[in-house]
Amino acid sequence: MILLDGKTASHAVKEQLKLQVDLLKANNKRPPHLAVIIVGNNGASETYVASKVKNCSEIGFTSTLIRLDSSISENELVHAIHELNINSSIDGILVQLPLPKHINEQKIIEAIIPEKDVDGFHPVNAGKLVQGLPTFIPATPFGIMLLLEHYSIQTKGKHAVIIGRSNIVGRPMSILLSSNQQYGNCTVTICHSHTSNLHEICLQADILIAALGKPEFVKQSMIKPGAIVIDVGITRVEDASTKKGFRLKGDVAFDEVAPMCSYITPVPGGVGLMTIAGLLKNTLQAYLTKQ
Ligand code: NAD
What is the per-residue burial (b if ≥16 Cβ within 10 Å, else e) of 97-133? Predict the structure, then answer.
């Protein structure tokens, strides 16, 4: 079994990006600039946002963190996004999800102009992805593709089973893996909460991607020997023995599944780090497209 190490793979992507930023700076050009909006103070969101800002600084990107109170109205948030849309010094805009319940997330996603939508959630960018046109690939599926590429994992002709059909992970992942491209050409099955024979379908997977948000849902009995297992899930599970009072759990019961696999991602240290690499690549792309 080989561990798909998000730390090593994301470091390699970030090193490449840093070289490109150094070159821009050497040519007296400004670096790419990411604006991140966080609404309220959800603990997990705070952690993600802090990590995005830190990673920007590590590779020489500029970042601006905009903190808004959870009582902000939908219209005020749309207005804040509009200001960033028209600010020519900002290349990418990201609104950290989830948002407070009184704000319609879809409306916010659509408020970001597609050219600055580095999360790739805008319907225009999602549509381009479906048609195989150049676009921003949502950061988590993009990160998984970068991980497959880093480890030169051959996907052609394999059966990929994806558990979860969200717009940010499962659905775009299914499009990428079924596309006619080097790390695609899979036969893809997408499963969801109404799939009746999930266990049997998982057993047929050469590549299994778990993105359902249920800790340790995928057990050893669901794994075909030699499968490649990608665990997207991140859930905070209470654990009084840790300093923070919780522990991060993936959707895969790692200890029992790992011995069955050819490759597997750990949680933490797998897909999460690659997601940031995907976001940084999208931000550079947004910057370069504008030049
Ligand atoms: P979501 O809640 O939007 O979607 C979950 C999907 O799982 C749904 O399509 C649902 O139909 C399916 N599902 C739920 N229960 C199921 C069951 N019993 N059997 C089969 N399918 C089932 O979640 P999401 O936003 O796609 O995120 C999924 C997980 O991935 C979460 O734990 C989230 O925190 C994590 N996540 C991680 C990263 C990362 O960077 N590693 C990024 C995004 C999301």
Answer: eebbeebeeeebbbbbebbbbbbbbbeebbebbeeee
Does residue 150 sit within a domain?
Answer: yes
Residue of the CA atom closest to atom 3 of ligand 1: 166
Range of the domain at 228: 139-271
If you measure from the C-alpha of residue 61 to the centroid of ligand 1, how many angstroms do you get, rounded to a whole number? Answer: 30
Predicted confidence (pLDDT) per residue in 118-171, tens digit: 999 999 999 999 999 999 999 999 999 999 999 999 999 999 999 999 999 999
Count: domains in the chain: 2
> CA 86 to CA 90: how far, in whole Å?
8
Instruction: Using the mean position of ligand 1's atoms as its centre, give its distance from the Cα of residue 213 in Å.
Output: 4
Residues 12-69: tens digit of each pLDDT: 999 999 999 999 999 999 999 999 999 999 999 999 999 999 999 999 999 999 999 9
Atom number in ligand 1 closest to CA 44 = 34
pTM (2 decimals)?
Answer: 0.98
Q: Which of 232, 207, 227 is nearest to 217 (CA)?
A: 232
Q: Report the CATH number at residue 65.
A: 3.40.50.10860
Helices 170-178 + 123-130 axis angle, to 10: 30
Tell me the CA–centroid distance for residue 168 and ligand 1, in Å.
Answer: 9
